Amino acid sequence: MFTFSFKAIGTQWEIETYEPLVRGQQQRILRRIEEFDTTYSRFRPDSLVSRVAAAPEGGCFDFPDDSLALFDLYDRLHMATAGAVDPLVGRDLELLGYDRTYSLTPAPHLVREEYARGRASWSKDIIRDGTSLVTRCPLVIDVGAAGKGYLVDIVSEILREAGFNQFVVDGSGDLRHSGDSSIRVGLEHPFDPLLAIGVANLQDCALCASAIARRAWGDGLHHVLDARTGVPVRNVVATWVVADEAAIADGLATALFFTRADQLAEVFRFSYVRMFADGRADISQNFDGKLFS
Which of 10, 208, 249, 271 holds its CA 20 to 30 A away from the CA of 155? Predict the structure, then answer.
């Protein structure tokens, strides 16, 4: 296997293929990731979502064609979780200190309380017209719940267009596998990267994980927030989801922190493992893998 390793969107990536990626193919992947970042990153001032956040009276913002599938997925996730998953959670993340400068210093309690009284919602504060978003005030979009998985899918499609049929795209834990032979992937313990709580068998599908310890700061502060309250979740500490597409697996790995699996299964096809704060873990019957005792 040949490995193409690089850093992008603030994390480490690895692409494994049976034939090496030539320089032109590597550059195409890097350019496509950069395009995605200049659209959706709330951490860079030149991005489109930063323009949305800086518009004092809102406006109409035209997103690229790839936004259609991503925003459609957020529509479904928002509805299936009764609003717990919401790309407008960005302002709550900023107020808790997970902002553009990574201050990691929460805003004063009164400031957060004031925002909570008029908290923005994807269903009531955004008007979607195809790939255009219409806003009436500054809104902080954060696609962290499904965006990296969606980017893994985009990179996978580039590989297929280049003639690669067997590969693994690993966006720092968000995996997409293509090929005839399955691979085994360890389910990393959320509080000890040297331990695994189980293993998944992956073939021609995606596996995405989410854990509160990945981006945590302060006392009980981390990046997995219930968008209805702006409060970090506490009951669930880690999730792993297998689905046909990485975007869906990524979004559901977040949704499982707030919503029962049977409710999500009414809308999506997936399998999962979920670990709770008390150390318990549950696994769906259709999960191809096992938990260690």
Answer: 271
Question: For residues 70 and 79, what is the distance between their CA atoms, to the nearest angstrom?
Answer: 14
| 160, burial (CB in 10 Å: exposed 0-12, middle 13-18, buried 19+) | exposed
Write the CB contacts of 273 (distance below 8 Å, at least 6 apart in sequence). 187, 197, 198, 200, 239, 240, 281, 282, 283, 284, 287, 289, 291
* Cα–Cα distance, 275 to 270 (Å, whole number): 17
- The answer to whether 166 and 179 have CB atoms below 8 angstroms apart is yes
- Residue 134's CB is within 10 A of a number of other CB atoms, namely 13
Read off the pLDDT band of 222 (50, 70, 90): confident
d(C-alpha 184, C-alpha 182), whole Å: 7
Q: Which of 26, 46, 25, 24 is nearest to 35 (CA)?
A: 46
Nearest to 37 by CA among 213, 171, 133, 176: 171
The verdict on domain 46-135 having CATH code 3.40.50.850 is no
- Please say if the pLDDT value at position 218 is more than 80: no
> Do 89 and 142 meet the contact criterion of CB atoms below 8 Å apart?
yes
Rounded CA separation 162/164 (Å): 6
3-state secondary structure of 241: strand
Of 214, 216, 235, 229, nearest to 92 (Cα)? Answer: 229
Let me know: does 33 contact 9? Beta carbons within 8 Å: yes
Closest CA to 106 of 241, 252, 269, 225: 225
Ordered by start, the domain boundaries in the chain are 46-135
What percent of the chain shows pLDDT beyond 90?
Answer: 90
